[in-house]
Please model this.
Amino acid sequence: MNEKTESSPLDIEVGTTLSAHSPDGDPATAWQRAKDSYRLVSALNRRKFSIVVIGTGLAGAGAAAALADLGYQVTAVTYHDAPRRAHSVAAQGGINAARGRKVDNDSLGRFVKDTVKGGDYRGREREVFRLAEESARVIDHMNALGAPFAREYGGSLDTRSFGGVQVSRTYYTRGQTGQQLQIAGAAALGQQVARGALRLLVRHEMVDLIVKDGRAQGVIVRNLLTGELQPITAHAVVLATGGYGNIYYHSTLAKNSNASASWRAHRRGAYLAMPSFIQFHPTALPISTHWQSKSILMSESLRNDGRIWVPKTAGDTREPNDIPEDERDYYLERRYPAFGNLTPRDVASRAARERIDAGHGVGPLKNSVYLDFRDALQRYGKETISARYGNLFHMYEDATGENPYEVPMRIAPGAHFTMGGLWADYQLMTSIPGLFVAGEAGSSYHGANRLGANSLLSACVDGWFTIPFTVPNYLADHLGTEPLHEDDEVVQKTLNDAYERFDRLLNIGGTKPPRSFHRALGEILYRGCGVSRDREGLTDAIAQIRTLRENFYQDLRIAGSASRINQELEYAGRVEDYLQLAEVMCVDALDRKESCGAHFRMEYQHDDGEAKRDDENWALISAWQTGNWEGTASFTRHVEPLEFAAVPLQVRDYR
Model:
């Protein structure tokens, strides 16, 4: 283990060794053996337990609907005006499953190998087996719920390939897969609401976690229409609130996506695992002006038929169609011939950034590369390409004014998915008993890099097929206990803490809106903790974040009051959380002295520029406990060693 050294600028306490509490023995049978050992709650006793689920994306909707259908008292909370607006709708390209329907030698074992290798051996192998095992059930389940998967001529479900694999295991609905799955999941949630089995709170945001006797026993939510704070007590809490990619300001996430629920849980004691593991999507649209508020995602599925290239001559200003074939550098095909344009996202993003930084970038700001469909259009025709990607092509033209049927798309790496998140054990329970995490809010499955089309899968597996088993296993020990009363001392203390926080932010009385601090933070992170990082850049970023946070507390201005609709107040709370989380991200990146997946430290690379892991010292999960955010923050790193039995450690090579 690599602990604090004399050359490190960090003051990190050495914590404990954590256990995932996963079954011993063959990882391929671990999930079934775990389910067989879980304690049950009888049908007559389920109504005696209350559960609150925060978030109604694929993970949250699945968990809430499944638990309500089993008979538990469930409250689902979303800050949207309807569950179907959750950010899961933004996923475009598809959802993976090891169903082996194509005759291309796919299998459950190959799925596990691809996913473990794709995560650069920094995720739990046993959990990947669960992901693979449940994947076939997920497709059948969502198909039964009405998701309109694409079909082959004979009527069977169609598939296509995605980055990091050489088989066809991605099920899809054109470029709308997340939207269609979310509609199906929200409909299932609505059915439980209609039958009176589930209480749904819309336009409510979780602002704190209630912890008593070392257990999570509820949440504090804010009514976004009235400003009223309300406690919701329960026997268990499930957080399914997505990732924190919006911390970069310019990201592919919806602007309302945030990290506050997870960070508030962390402030109450939940460990944060590997927060520096951030995926930069290789096919985001480039930022064209300083005032652009976000980047836009173009599905990775486009890399099935699109070819990525830059001009061979640096600084070439010719129009792309005027550059002849022999003057184009198809750099992914050149460097990674076995996978070509379907290399994993971290590899593709790093390669694009290298070409851009070397002066081969294209577009008005020279910050992008080309994604060209010329050859595919000639081979298959416009009708076929339109059937596969038509809505994506329309979206691109709406955003840029350029017709991708006639000129190549321009793409660039953009902050996207977070592999880091709240640490949770094999049961998806965090370091706070009774607090569970599902979907991107947790750090399961993906290691240091997520393979495309595994995000929708992991959210569905967590929500529909893991939480309904693991939460009852926890609840079985608490039969006969009542939820906390709202007058309980701890409930009232947590409620008052939330009121005081909003009053403190409102009373700063400075001159700058929260957006200005968020934008400045994003610029710091893209420079210091972006696609590539190094010691000097991360050290500078930490110092700049601390200075920015001081300025925030001195010069923040929020108009209005807390007792009404106040989106600036909501935003300020989220930015305050970002300004703390960002420091932990950079500390984690500086502490981890290796390159792995999306965490690429410039000091640690092979002669050919590929990531250089340190398995002797860093084959582990770093789980952070922090404190004293009112002063100089303190950091304690707990560790969970990683083991690989079915997929032995090896150098990740896509050539």
